[in-house]
């Protein structure tokens, strides 16, 4: 599965699939510990801040194992443009830390499981010093299986939980059924696991649930993952100028659009429109202070303006029909030249280029910089430091926990190390080859080396495409330019659990957004939805967040 595999997937599905490509992401105490404050009573609600949080977090010791070709700036990933021969790779785990435990791990998988005994899993087991029994579940329906497993009495030793599944009873299950890793990782204890110590502090903060450090994180870039792409090769050939306002974008669409020639200007651009108009992120960062009052994303003029503008592209006929029908694969449509602009996860830059350049070596795509809708600098809200975690069964014994941490320390090795090469590419000669500085997976590698270990823990974000160094440079430089405009939303970096009574409060907004931009509903319908949202709990949720804000401050970052 790849990001944007349908023209307008749900955000949950989109986020899940993006992780894959980027990798190829009863009881309990109140969460709130805000500078001596309380949460107002309810269990497993709120967040953890102040001295309590500081005492929980692992020390940060950046890795010195490798030096990137392109350093991080403004919240970007680091970049690598080369792949070294195996003999020249750094070693970040000089001593095998595993003690031989047999570990059961549940994680999502987009693909067909290679099955037990395959040489990739065997090699990883031997390298770490553990034996993993994978309980992989179809990533497309992972949430359903996750809920069932956490409600049962039979929970694997470790379980991966993506942030987009933190609804309903999942947060309560995390608080009640998963181990406190603080005794092993808080403060200087993490130094026993150097690759885990090199994970940025913000990513760990998001792994704090119910006042305990429970989640091993997959760190994320601070910059947006949604990227407005354009066909740079065709733009250059046709003399098209990259737009810097939404009006210029609309006018460019008018110039490009040629349905009779099977060329449409764009795909659905709603996700980019939210950035063009400075729309607040989704929960829990979907609030801003206006004259001392919290205003929600859905109540803002910017939100409605973004929908109206996206709707105008549809009504003018600029959007490819597959996007309106929510069918097809927009990356393929874009790559074939049938739509010249689309938005997707930034990992599509490499995925599309690698495929297309096999037959069309001159294929080039670019990412347009975000802009304020009327020109000038955009308002870009900083992304969550982590959105996917691996948790350890609270009934696991000390040896099992330590062996899971040994595995996590191995999987968190940075690019350019022996450990990362094995995790990401398998065995040389069996799963991949290295020729002229280019890593290529064999057929066996494509069938066996899936993103499974990625979900245990990963290093600080990086982008490494040795076969297409221009793409690495493009990605990192785009992130750095967007990062110059980052703004922290309220509650940034906090792991906030809303009261369960509000779990379904926002459920209708995404489908209504789709209907409005496609002309099936009116913008006025969204205003009515917001009115209903307020009376059905939105105003009470606002009061809950305001109390949280008063107790914690605007951000724990």
Summarize the structure.
With 557 residues, the protein is of the alpha/beta class. It is built from 21 helices and 19 strands.
Topology readout:
Elements: H1 11-23, H2 50-56, E1 78-80, E2 102-109, H3 119-128, E3 131-138, H4 142-151, E4 158-162, H5 170-177, H6 182-185, H7 194-197, H8 201-205, E5 208-209, E6 212-213, E7 216-219, E8 226-230, H9 232-238, H10 246-256, E9 264-266, H11 270-276, E10 287-290, E11 293-296, H12 301-315, H13 321-325, H14 330-335, E12 339-345, H15 348-356, E13 366-367, E14 380-381, E15 386-392, H16 398-411, H17 418-425, E16 432-435, E17 438-441, H18 443-448, E18 462-464, H19 469-483, E19 486-487, H20 509-517, H21 523-552
Parallel strand pairs: 1-18, 2-3, 2-4, 9-12, 14-19
Antiparallel strand pairs: 4-15, 5-6, 7-15, 8-12, 8-13, 10-11, 16-17
Helix pairs in contact: 4-5, 11-12, 20-21
Question: Any overview of this molecule?
Answer:
With 557 residues, this protein is an alpha/beta fold. The protein is built from 21 helices and 19 strands. The strands form 7 sheets. A 5-stranded mixed sheet has the order 3-2-4-15-7. It has a 4-stranded mixed sheet with strand order 9-12-8-13. A hairpin with a 2-residue loop joins strand 10 (287-290) and strand 11. Helix 4 crosses helix 5 (170-177), helix 11 packs across helix 12 (301-315) and helix 20 packs antiparallel against helix 21 (523-552). Mean pLDDT is 91; it is low at 1-9, 11-21 and 23-42.
């Amino acid at each position: 599965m790849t990001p944007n595999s349908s023209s307008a997937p749900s955000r949950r599905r989109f986020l899940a699939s993006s992780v894959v490509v980027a990798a190829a992401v009863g009881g309990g105490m109140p969460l709130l510990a805000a500078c001596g404050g309380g949460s107002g009573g309810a269990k497993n609600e709120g967040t953890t801040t102040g001295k309590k949080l500081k005492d929980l977090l692992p020390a940060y010791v950046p890795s010195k194992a490798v030096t990137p070709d392109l350093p991080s700036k403004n919240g970007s990933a680091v970049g690598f443009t080369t792949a070294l021969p195996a003999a020249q790779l750094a070693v970040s785990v000089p001593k095998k830390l595993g003690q031989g435990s047999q570990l059961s791990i549940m994680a999502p998988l987009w693909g067909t499981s290679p099955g037990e005994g395959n040489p990739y899993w065997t090699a990883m087991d031997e390298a770490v010093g553990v034996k993993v029994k994978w309980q992989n579940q179809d990533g497309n329906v992972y949430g359903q299986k996750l809920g069932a497993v956490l409600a049962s009495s039979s929970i694997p030793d470790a379980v991966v939980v993506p942030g987009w599944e933190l609804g309903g009873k999942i947060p309560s299950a995390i608080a009640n059924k998963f181990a406190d890793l603080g005794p092993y990782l808080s403060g200087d204890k993490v130094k026993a696991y150097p690759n885990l110590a090199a994970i940025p502090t913000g990513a760990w903060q998001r792994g704090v649930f119910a006042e305990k450090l429970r989640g091993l994180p997959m760190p994320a870039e601070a910059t947006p993952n949604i990227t407005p792409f354009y066909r740079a090769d065709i733009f250059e050939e046709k003399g098209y100028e990259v737009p810097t306002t939404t009006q210029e974008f609309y006018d460019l669409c008018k110039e490009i659009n040629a349905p009779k020639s099977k060329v449409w200007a764009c795909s659905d651009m709603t996700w980019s429109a939210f950035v063009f108009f400075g729309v607040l992120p989704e929960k829990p960062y979907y609030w801003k202070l206006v004259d001392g009052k919290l205003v929600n994303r859905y109540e803002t003029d910017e939100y409605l303006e973004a929908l109206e503008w996206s709707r105008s592209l549809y009504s003018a006929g600029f959007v490819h029909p597959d996007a309106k029908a929510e069918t097809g694969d927009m990356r393929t449509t874009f790559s074939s030249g049938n739509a010249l602009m689309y938005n997707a996860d930034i990992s599509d830059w490499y995925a599309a280029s690698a495929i297309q350049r096999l037959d069309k070596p001159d294929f080039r795509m670019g990412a347009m910089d975000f802009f304020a809708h009327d020109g000038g600098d955009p308002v870009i809200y900083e992304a969550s430091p982590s959105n996917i975690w691996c948790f350890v069964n609270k009934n696991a014994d000390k040896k099992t926990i330590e062996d899971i941490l040994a595995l996590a320390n191995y999987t968190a090795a940075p690019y350019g190390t022996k450990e990362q090469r094995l995790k990401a590419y398998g065995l040389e000669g069996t799963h991949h080859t290295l020729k002229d500085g280019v890593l290529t997976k064999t057929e066996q590698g494509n069938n066996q080396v899936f993103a499974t270990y990625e979900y245990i823990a990963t290093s600080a974000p990086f982008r490494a495409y040795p076969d297409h160094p221009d793409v690495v440079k493009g990605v990192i430089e785009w992130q750095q330019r967007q990062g110059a405009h980052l703004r922290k939303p309220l509650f940034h970096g906090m792991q906030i659990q809303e009261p369960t009574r509000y779990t379904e409060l926002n459920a209708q907004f995404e489908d209504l957004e789709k209907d409005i931009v496609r002309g099936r509903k009116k913008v006025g319908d969204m205003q009515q939805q917001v009115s209903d949202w307020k009376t059905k709990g939105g105003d009470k949720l606002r009061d809950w967040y305001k109390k949280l804000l008063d107790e914690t401050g605007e951000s724990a970052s």
